[in-house]
Amino acid sequence: MDFYIVIPAHNEADSIGLTLESLTQQTLLPKKIVVVNDNSIDNTETLVNGYSARYPFIKLVTNVSSNAHLPGSKIINAFYKGYSTLDENYDVICKFDADLIFPNNYLETLSKHFNAEPKLGMAAGFCYIKKNNDWVLENLTRQDHIRGALKAYRKACFLEIGKLKRSMGWDTVDELLAKYYNWTLLTDTNLQVKHLKPTGISYNKASKYLQGEAMYKMRYGFFITLISAAKLAYKKSSFRLFRDYMLGYFKALKAKKAHLVSKKEGLFIRKLRWKGILNKFSG
Q: Using CB atoms within 10 A as the burial measure, which of 63, 112, 162, 258 is most buried?
């Protein structure tokens, strides 16, 4: 099974070498790795060039963008910059962050999962972060959700969901659309990936309304947004985030922002979300 990997990297000199080293030590090597140097001002480019000189399957692409570290569109725009340089001869396309250390059997294990289940559309391991010299499960990790940091898509699934959305919420709507098109998702708890920078640690203040905006764009509706915003803010231990999420939702509603999904897809998403909410309350 052929894996192509795209890694957007903005000022990741302290981690990109560790990520690439772990990928070059895989028991199943990727066919191609494209690192997108996204407006970095540190030594990211130099480090990647060092690896590309040693490994012919690693390539550096340069992207010019804003210095602001925003979730959503910036990282996906960088992904597409790298993706546009690739051919179509892949079985699995991966969007990985530049601050991950993978176990050396990571790609081989994913390959086995994809080969065993033809309708498996997406698969990944679990993210662990370092706390007090121990690696612990990152609190945003769930068995029913593949983290945006380490997405791997079967080609047919990737194309059927319309690839990746250039918006905050891209890493949720991809899974919802995969389910809409009858693909399954898998997270393997045995694949423990070291996440060197906890999610959102470098996002700037301009991003604070984008989560609520994304909920609007996914056609959650008011009540699902309310519940989802409260849950996410609770996980991050911040009531202020709940306020920001809801403000983001209402700002998007007022501005009539374009949705990420069709009305039919939105209806499916709301039904799926309500089913999940009710199951948690009843279970």
A: 63
